[in-house]
Amino acid sequence: MYDDDLEALNDAVKKCPSQTWNLLMPHVERLTNIPVDDYDYDERLQNWREERTAKSGMDVARGTVELLKRALATEQPDELIARIAPLKKGISPIIQEIIIAAYTHLPARYADTGIAWLLDDLSRFRLGFGYREPEWMPAVRLVEALSPHCSEKLFRRLEEAIYHYHAPEEKREARYCVKLWRKNAFCHYWG
């Protein structure tokens, strides 16, 4: 998608964000509802990953999703939250990425909604793909945008979750390094 296309699409999304969501999101969910764990790779998800799009242009569907996140979050946050509710439990990593990015653009008064969603499943701390930026950056953006505005109680929960967070592969990596240390090999790992 190039500048003229993006401008026309931006106008359409701003004028009809709800209709755009209704037309597009069922297809996004259908096409990306692929279970992928941390170490699997599925070619079908590559076109949806931000980091894989060409610098000179953007896929139309991906561009529409980018615009929808911002338009609904800033102009119709209640509607966005209602539309995201049925998608929250989905297995699609792309849908989860869309949700975290959309929540990042919510107005300050919706901070508790975004932070509570993040804390409901700590695997959401790592929704990025780690290609051009660390996999935790979407969560960092959400926390930076909303944590200054969330309730004190939720802020304390967030603080505890971050402070006590352990990556799922941490034990596996520690076991591997201990084996190497026992063989007098050096391994850059600790916690």
According to DSSP, the number of beta strands is 0
Number of helical stretches of at least 4 residues:
9
Structural class: mainly alpha
Q: Low-confidence parts, pLDDT < 50 over ≥5 residues?
A: 51-57
Overall pLDDT level = 81
Provide the gyration radius in Å.
19 Å
Shape: globular
How many distinct domains?
A: 1
- The share of residues in extended strands comes to under 5%
* End-to-end distance: 43 Å
Along the chain, the helix and strand elements come as: HHHHHHHHH
In brief:
The chain is mainly alpha-helical.
Written account of the structure:
The N and C termini lie far apart (43 Å). The protein is globular and about 65 Å long. The protein has helices spanning 3-15, 17-32, 60-75, 77-84, 93-104, 111-120, 137-146, 152-163, 170-182. It is mostly helical and 191 residues long. Residues 51-57 have low confidence and may be disordered. The chain contains 9 helices and no strands. The chain has one domain (3-182).
